[in-house]
Amino acid sequence: MTATARTRSGVGxxxxxxxxxxxxxVTAAVTxxxxxxxxxxxxxxxxxxxxxxxxxxxxxxxxxEAFRAASTTAxxxxxxxxxxxxxxxxxxxARRIAGSLDAVAAxxxxxxxxxxxxxxxxxxLGAEFEQLTTSFNALADRLEESQHLRERLLADVAHxxxxxxxxxxxxxxxxxxxxQELDATTADVLLGQAERLSRLARDLAAVTHxxxxxxxxxxxxxxxxxxxxxxxxxxxxxxxxxxVDVRSHAERPLPAVxxxxxxxxxxxxxxxxxxxxxxxxxxxxxxxxSRRDDQVCLEVSDTGTGIxxxxxxxxxxxxxxxxxxxxxxxxxxxxxxxxxKALVEAQGGTIxxxxxxxxxxxxxxxxxxxxxxx
Length: 374
Ligand SMILES: Nc1ncnc2c1ncn2[C@@H]1O[C@H](COP(=O)(O)OP(=O)(O)OP(=O)(O)O)[C@@H](O)[C@H]1O
Ligand SMILES: [Mg+2]
Known about the structure:
It is built from nine helices and seven strands, in the order αααααβαββαββααββ. It is an alpha+beta fold and 374 residues long. It folds into three domains: 2-115, no CATH class; 151-211, Helix Hairpins; 219-369, 2-Layer Sandwich (Heat Shock Protein 90). Strands 2-4-5-7-6 form a five-stranded mixed β-sheet. The longest helix is centred in the N-terminal third of the chain and has 55 residues, at 58-112. The relative contact order is 0.07. GO terms for molecular function: phosphorelay sensor kinase activity. It catalyses: ATP + protein L-histidine = ADP + protein N-phospho-L-histidine. Residues 95-148 form the HAMP domain. InterPro entries: HAMP_dom, HATPase_C_sf, HATPase_dom, His_kinase_dom, HisK_dim/P_dom, HisK_dim/P_sf, Sensor_HK_Regulatory, Sig_transdc_His_kin-like_C. The chain crosses the membrane at residues 74-94.
């Protein structure tokens, strides 16, 4: 980039610095010369006269001549010394600045060409350059991270698509070869796999929009107890069928929260679906709404299989499933919690998970700021 800029304007940094210093030097020399020529001999002459010497004395004329010559020589020597020092200083400074700029420019070019591992070393050229290298390296970190995420996302999506497509293909081939009949069971399998692909497409679109902050939120003050009661109501029947008890507890009074009713219902829906999927018959799912200082906590806890410590930090990642085989059989693609997290954060809240481990149940806690009292 510097090279292009240099060729475009034709003059490099060192030359510009040298020209600037030359201008300063010439200005200083001319000023010193003019002032020296106008003031120096006159002052010298006045001192001679004050010392009682005659104006026209040959010794005085000679001394004044010597003074002028000495002044001229001293000024010329000072000018040459200053010019040499200025040239050396500008070359050293320009070389160091240009070296650091070139390093940043080369790294930016590498980054642009897709080398996300490139970083710029600190230059030791002062605060501004430190700021430049720090910002550049932070930018490179972000790009590298999003590149890794993109690669992983693509690999995950490819992996998710492969299984249902292979199943559909296997069945269709078997039907075409007359090995398999297209009966109700086969149609169910095919539809189930097609539905899995549709849900993957839907979830991917949802998580992409939510994580990019590209969602319209209809924020309004809502009482937290309304949210938990509605969620329990929506899941009561499915839980009863699975032999799981679902109930809600809400502290009263609770301050309202400013959220999008539908989005928050979607988050609780995801958490309840997970809880029910991981809680065997005879278990219990509890939804709690409580106050913690000026925040409101919504908690979904279950007495189910729990989450092992090594999986806990990852459950909010896209496509992460703690127990791959079983979760895949039950149809989850591992996106539900990633969507939930993005939605909660878009509404100004946070979401956390805690679990004592295998078979200890799991608790998901959403923390939302209490809405300002009207
Ligand atoms: N209540 C829970 N108890 C035990 N494990 C859980 C619980 N909730 C989530 N998990 C673990 O976290 C993983 C990620 O959950 P997430 O909701 O993101 O995906 P999923 O439920 O597998 O699929 P999807 O929600 O996309 O249908 C799950 O696969 C499961 O292993
Ligand atoms: Mg889920």
